[in-house]
Every structure is written in C-alpha cells, then in structure tokens.
TrEMBL record:
Transmembrane segments: 20-38, 58-80, 107-135, 141-162, 174-198, 259-280
GO cellular component, one term: plasma membrane
Protein name according to UniProt: ABC-2 type transporter
GO molecular function: ABC-type transporter activity
Alphabetic keyword roster: Membrane, Transmembrane, Transmembrane helix
Length: 285
C-alpha cells in the first residue's frame, strides 16, 4: 500500500503541474491527425469498417513508436534522480516508505500519467475516426490503445530504472537519449553490419533467422509484434514481408513470432527496473 500512496502523490503532482493536460493535448492532436490520414487512405482504397480501423492503426503505429518512448522517458527519467538532487528523496524515505515502495510508486504514478494521456487522446482519435470515416471496429481500436499503454509502461520502467541507477538528472537524461539512439538507429545499423560481415552482402537472397530475431528484439519492434498478435495483421511486423515471400532461411524464429512480442515487452520493462532497484537499494543517498 505504501507504493500506492507514493503513486497517488506523484500523479497529483503531475496534474497540478499541468503535465497531464499537456500530454493529453499532444496525444489528442496526434490521434486526430491519424484519424484524418486514415480517412484519406480509406477514401483512396474505398474501404470501410474494420479495414478503416486498421488504416488508422497503421497510420498511428509508426509515429506512436517514436512519440510514446520520448514522452515516457521524459516523464520517467527524473523520477528518482530529480528528487535525490532536490533533497526531497531523503524526506520521502523518512516517512514509512521503503526504497522499493518509492521506485514502484514512481512507476505506477508516472505510468498513470502516460496511460491517461494515451486513453483520452486516443478516445478523441476514435471520435475523429467516426466523424471522418463513419464506421469503426471498436474492438480492434481498443486493443491497439491498450497495447500502446503497455508500450508506454515499458518505457516508463526504462526511464525510472535509469533514474534509480544514477545520482543526477543530467546522467539520467543522457541515458534516456542513449536508449533512443540505440533503439532507433544503432541497433539496426549493427544488425545490418553483422549481416554484411557474415553473409558478405547487404541484401542476400535469403535472410538468416538470426537477423530477423535481432531486429525483433527492440521495444518498438516488440510493440509491433504485440499488435500483430492481437489483431492478426502481419503488416505490423518487419518479418511478415520476408515470410510472405519465403525469403527467411529456416522460417520465422520464435523471437520474431507475434505472440513473443509480449514476452519481450515484459523483459524490457522488468529487467531494467529490477537492475535500477537493486542499484538504488545499495547506494548512499
């Protein structure tokens, strides 16, 4: 219950500072723009109903995989390090809160901020989709929204884990930027470099399974896999095009299977958070 108390305080602080309002407005604009784009695609291909919803989800998935991490890391990176710098952490721990309660409470509170922003913003997007298109598959849209909330939770855990490992918000911010660079750029570059080193060419006739597996591991790829698992739509994963054309040597590895995206998201959330908590438990404030 102590973690819940910390989470409630953290959430109320976000509301008072208008962070929640700003994030909600950002997600609302983002989702309405996606709804308008989906309506244009629907008109172009003369599709409706569930297909229009998939158009919207396709229009939202890629930008969401960029926007959600940035917002969640921004919300999470100063959770512990910021209070340590200001001295308020010592006061907080002077209350009947254990360090574990503080870390978990920060995760819950800041996940609440991100989740409410996504839920409200995407609800506005749903209304926009109905207005622009006139029909929608509510089940598919709600499923996508909930998976996006889970994706935000993963990056909040990464941000709070980083914050718990470091003594200053500057270092935590550098770590957050480093994660973005690694996941968005360095990971794919390294995978392509290894492919060239092992196969001797950038685009071999068949793609080895390890390359598909390596590209399926980052959180944004796992996010796409989770969406594909729930909606049964292969276009949300990078491996689907290779698989359709029979270009994967030995078939799709288990790591790149759509259902395994949920396993990867859980690992990306829990492992960094556990490391941060372990580190936080052993340092002097």
């Amino acid at each position: 219950m102590s973690a819940i108390i910390v989470a409630k305080k953290d959430f109320r602080d976000a509301v008072r500072s208008r962070v929640l309002l700003a994030l909600t407005g950002l997600f609302a604009l983002f989702s309405v723009g996606g709804a308008f784009l989906a309506s244009r695609l629907s008109a172009l291909f003369e599709e409706g109903g569930a297909e229009s919803t998939l158009d919207l989800i396709l229009a939202l998935q890629t930008p969401a995989s960029f926007l959600v991490p940035i917002i969640a890391l921004f919300v999470g990176y100063g959770a512990i390090a910021g209070e340590r710098e200001s001295g308020s952490l010592a006061f907080l721990l002077g209350l009947p809160h254990r360090r574990r309660d503080v870390v978990l409470g920060k995760v819950l509170g800041r996940t609440g901020v991100v989740a409410v922003s996504i839920l409200v913003g995407f609800t506005v997007g749903l209304l926009g989709l109905v207005a622009f298109v006139g029909s929608v598959s509510l089940v598919d849209y709600v499923a996508f929204t909930l998976i996006t909330v889970l994706f935000g939770f993963v990056y909040v855990c990464l941000g709070v884990g980083l914050s718990a490992m470091t003594r200053s918000t500057t270092r935590a911010a550098v770590g957050a930027v480093g994660l973005v660079v690694v996941f968005w750029f360095a990971w794919s570059v390294l995978a392509q470099a290894l492919l060239f080193a092992i196969e001797g060419e950038l685009l071999p006739e068949t793609i080895p399974g390890w390359f598909i597996a390596m590209n399926a591991v980052p959180p944004d790829a796992a996010y796409g896999s989770a969406i594909a698992a729930v909606l049964g739509a292969g276009q949300f994963t990078a491996s689907s095009a290779y698989e359709t054309q029979g270009l994967i040597d030995g078939g799709v590895p288990i790591v790149a299977k759509p259902w395994f995206g949920f396993v990867l998201l859980a690992l990306w959330a829990l492992v960094p958070l556990a490391i941060g908590l372990w580190r936080f438990d052993r340092v002097d404030l």
